[in-house]
Structures are given as C-alpha cells and as structure tokens.
Design a protein that fits this description.
Layout (H helix, E strand, L loop, with lengths): L8 E4 L4 E9 L2 E5 L5 E5 L3 E3 L2 H8 L7 E2 L7 E2 L1
Antiparallel strand pairs: 1-2, 1-5, 2-3, 3-4, 6-7
C-alpha cells in the first residue's frame, strides 16, 4: 500500500478530485482542494496524482463545482 506525506498531491478516485494531503491519521487522509475545500478520504481510495492533475490543482481548477451539503461535507456535482 502506498504511503503519502503531508504536502503531496493525490487523486481521490471515487470523487474524481485532486487534493493536497494536509493530515494523515492511520488510513484516513485529510485532503484540501485548490480552493481550500477540505475533506477526508480513506488511503486505499487515493492514488498519486499525475503531472497533469498536479498542474490542474496548482492552476486552481477543480473540474467540478463544490456545493454545501446538510451533513457539512463537501458535495460535488
């Protein structure tokens, strides 16, 4: 299984979003998106971001719209 460090970029595969690893607690990653949206994902559900995905993150592109949800978690549409 891959191990990540804070500051690395990963692809949250189920959500199809690139995030920067902010924190690691066991098998749970706290990720932050290019516009500051924070969410959590299991380590097994992430993979290293490709160079193109890294570039899209740094350019501020999410590729999807983030909305609020009643649960307090980000919802992508």
């Amino acid at each position: 299984m891959l191990r990540y460090r804070a500051g690395e970029y990963v692809m949250d595969v189920p959500r199809g979003l690139v995030g920067r690893v902010e924190e690691i607690e066991g098998d749970l990653l706290t990720l932050i998106g290019p516009r500051g949206v924070e969410w959590e994902q299991e380590l097994a559900q992430c993979r290293p971001a490709s160079p193109d995905e890294n570039a899209s993150f740094r350019n501020g592109s999410t590729g999807r719209r983030v909305e609020s949800s009643t649960s307090g978690l980000p919802r992508w549409s």
